[in-house]
Each structure stands twice: as C-alpha cells, then as structure tokens.
Design the sequence.
C-alpha cells in the first residue's frame, strides 16, 4: 500500500519540473512534479508520494476529505485534522486569500 501525504505548493520551478511544498510543518521541501494532465500552481493542495506530486485536490475536495476523516476515524485523530486545517489555511494564504 502506498501512502501519499498532502502538502501545499509554495513555489514552482517549471523548467526543472520541481515544486517547493510545505507539509504543514513550516519546512519547505523540494519535490518532483509528476502529473502531466493537471497544472500545478502556488497554493494548490497536492498529494506527494516518494518525493513526487501524484495528484491535486481542489479546495472543496480537501474539505470533504477532512470531513470524511472526522466521520470515519472520529476525533481521536485530532492532530491530523489540525494539520489538514493548517494546510487549508496555508493554501489560502499562498493563493492570496482565495479558496480556488
């Protein structure tokens, strides 16, 4: 089973196909842009697996994902819910206050 981790794109080097992402901890990591059919932009919430962006969430889709986790896993995983809410706030900040 693979485990992808959500992150927010904070910068992009389109020539090198490299993006800088924040996983919600304030530390910026460089990852490869591995999806071709979706355009990545600053503030996007993406899924990173093994250092490669493999998909992208819409803002609304990520909110639904958080609600799903709350429903299925309960509030026992509050630290993850808090981290995901931090990612939503960061995505909105990087996009200049817009949801999408």
Sequence:
């Amino acid at each position: 089973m693979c485990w992808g981790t959500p992150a927010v794109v904070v910068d992009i080097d389109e020539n090198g196909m490299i993006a800088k992402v924040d996983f919600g901890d304030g530390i910026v990591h460089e990852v490869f842009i591995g999806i071709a059919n979706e355009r990545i932009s600053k503030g996007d919430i993406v899924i990173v697996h093994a250092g490669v962006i493999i998909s992208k969430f819409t803002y609304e889709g990520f909110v639904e994902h958080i609600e799903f986790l709350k429903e299925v896993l309960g509030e026992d995983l509050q630290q993850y819910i808090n981290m995901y809410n931090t990612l939503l706030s960061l995505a909105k900040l990087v996009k200049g206050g817009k949801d999408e």
In short: The domain at 1-100 is CATH 2.30.30.140 (SH3 type barrels.).
